[in-house]
Amino acid sequence: MPTLERFVEECRDAVRRGGGQKEVSEVLRSYFSDVSNIINELGEPDTPGIKPIFQASDLTIVNVVWSPKMTLQPHNHEMWANIGIYSGREDNIFWRRIKDDPDGHIEAAGAKSLSVGDVTPLGKDIIHSVTNPIPRLTGAIHVYGGDFFEAERSEWDPEALNERPLDMERFKAQFADT
Fold this sequence. Notes:
- It is a single chain.
- This protein is of the alpha+beta class.
- It is built from four helices and eleven strands.
- The protein has a five-stranded antiparallel sheet, with helices on both faces.
């Protein structure tokens, strides 16, 4: 039965060996083979927030807990990500840049719903917005191929869909404000 500590070590080992998203995704899939084990270790989500589990320049692992009905505006990561849902549901809208738009506007390009036990990769260039569509907290483990909290990234105004630098403190505060 994999533990959170072992999961973190296996992710770190995969990155140290020169592995990337695919190798870490396999580690995450293995960890998510028994979601009840994750709940036993982390507990049912009870407080929204972004809780770092591990943070380094080449790897960040975060426990993300979404408030009911919470939505995050479109944003990018500038690094690959692997997402696993251990409680609730996460709906993603994927966006693409409008070619040659001087203000960096985006348009919707697809969507994907993730439910308990689902694990999905997000490429380095993905732009997405995320919603917890259900009336209870959603818990997810997010694994990033870099320092999620220090990377220079963008977000898009949810109404005008124009690009601006992401303000990490404001980004994190959205979890506390909901």
